[in-house]
Amino acid sequence: MSADQTSVTVGKTGISVSRVALGTAPLGSLYTSIPEAQGVATIQAAWEAGVRFFDTAPYYGAGQAERYLGAALRGSHATMWSSPPRLGASCSPTA
């Protein structure tokens, strides 16, 4: 069964997400360096498996995980996935 076949609505928002989420902290090179191609491929594989909820934050690799998400989900996926907000979080790019 794919993740999108078992979705839930978030509170009273009307937003539906998959029960399975992909946490992206490791894609921000939390434990080891993750090249962009590998990070994007990981996200795309999760998407193909039905994941529609991606947990990310600007602190994950100083925005690296968010950049990988943007690259992987750019285009037709843009309105079909969710990520939780991180209030008060920000980072400045180093490059």
Strand segment tally: 4
Unreliable sequence segments: none
Structural class: alpha+beta
Oligomer: single chain
Helix content: 10-25%
Distance between the termini: 41 Å
Order of helices and strands: EEEHEH
Q: Calculate the mean pLDDT score and round it.
A: 79
Largest sheet: 2 strands, antiparallel
- Tell me the strand percentage band: 5-15%
Mass-distribution shape: globular
Question: Going across the major beta sheet, what is the strand order?
Answer: 1-2
Q: Give the count of helical stretches.
A: 2
Gyration radius (Cα, Å) is: 13 Å
Description:
By secondary structure, this protein is α+β, with helices and mostly antiparallel strands. The chain has a domain at 3-9 and 16-73. It is built from 2 helices and 4 strands; from the N terminus they run βββαβα. A hairpin with a 6-residue loop joins strand 1 and strand 2. Helix 1 packs across helix 2. The longest helix is centred in the middle third of the chain and has 13 residues, at 36-48.
Which helices and strands, and how do they pair?
Elements: E1 7-9, E2 16-18, E3 21-23, H1 36-48, E4 53-55, H2 64-73
Parallel strand pairs: 3-4
Antiparallel strand pairs: 1-2
Helix pairs in contact: 1-2
